[in-house]
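Fold it.
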Amino acid sequence: MAARSYRFLRRTLAVGCLLAAAALPATRPTVPPTVIADATDAPQPTVLRMLQLNLCNSGRAGCYTGRAMARAAEVITAEAPDLVTLNEICAGDLSALHGVFQTVHPGRTVVAAFQAAGDRPSGDDTRCRNGQRFGIGLLTHVRTSATPHTVYAGTHPTQDLADPEERAWLCVDVDGALLACTTHLSATGYRIALTQCDHLLDTILPTISRDAGDEPTVLGGDLNLRAGHDPDVRSCTPPGHQRIDDGRLQHITATTDITLCCRELVPMHGATDHPGLLVTLTIGPSRRPA
């Protein structure tokens, strides 16, 4: 259903938890009121590996090689990330990578979400050369299919009117534990990319997070902005947020309740014009009451 201000698209799907706090013992010893419980009873942080990929797979751009999907499958198989954010893909690419992702996470339920970029001239979705919808996607895994999650998606309110492609954003809220998001910002107007970044990080994502109970939030994507350049991507990164980049245009940012570390650039061997960006997220400990 569309929200009034941001054209949010929501749908609730029956999937299980993405994250779970460490299980407490089935029985606990009785502790006198004046004694503090042992620290091992405290919820433990959750550690996830996240991979950002821009596959340039529309078939229309100069960076298209026809080899990006095969290389993406190799990287996912080798690295087994828990969360993958995908830019410049066709809808069918997400379905294909869903199968690869499921193979490296046997016994888990895979969550896949896609959001097409808009096409201003037609009022429809932007299309890949093969006719499929073109846009962004996200993959993650959960324990079971029993618990619903929510997908939020939309197009940025500011667009480059000289570019027929209307840039989009996408988030998955899984069991109230993590808001995982991706976007692909304007490549034809860097000032417009900065405006899109500002609005996404300062308005859209905090609004969704608040509505969901102040969830930890992570964003991965090709922002088409660099650190140390004009405009500088750091000017749209909220105070206290962490940010890791690939040295160029891809970035992963996280709210203050997530720690980012251990950046690794994964070579794509010329299959696309961006490396894979792999980081580790440490979330928590959970703020939920025991």
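Residues 154 and 274 are 24 Å apart (CA to CA).
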